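Working notes for the structural subgroup meeting. M.R. asked for a predicted model of this chain before we commit to crystallization trials. I am recording the input and output together here so anyone reviewing the notebook later can reproduce the run.

Input as submitted:
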Amino acid sequence: MSHHPPFKWRHFQPDIILLCVRWYLRYTLSYRDLEEIMLERGLHVDHTTIYRWVQWYAPELEKRCRPHLKAFNDSWKVDETYIKIKKVWMYLYRAVDSEGNTLEFFLSPTLIAEAASRFFLKALSSPPGTTAQAIKVVPRVINVDKNAAYPKAIAELKAAGVLPIQVELRQVKYLNNLIEQDHRFIKRFCQN
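Returned structure, recorded in token form:
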């Protein structure tokens, strides 16, 4: 897409294309729903055209928007849930900050300390779309549930020097309500 202007040779105006892509990515609308919404506005756009727009422009939008997203705070809430992807059950590890902004996610077939360690390594790396000299995201406190894999993974990362010793690990049942409630929306997308 970088070899030519992104909207060159498109039948529709760029703002219509971006509107459809944004609505599809942000809301639980199907391609046919978007086709109907555009028809109500006097635009005849086929659902397969919207599908092609999403496939073409979503990665580019993500790449361009990522550096401008707001910074995360240093209080993390980490949890895992069980979801089915292509008829295979997987564990989805997720980390959000105290305001509910997603920090990172990771899929694993197992719920063990090694998978938790890999998830934390991924979450602690520099955010995608930032320059190499960017400061790594380091939490002040990590709130987790009673899963035994988390303390072991955190201890290993502290021993390896990946995670600072002063990072506090909290295993309190109700501190993760924010992410627990957010799992419902993730499951709604994945289970359909």
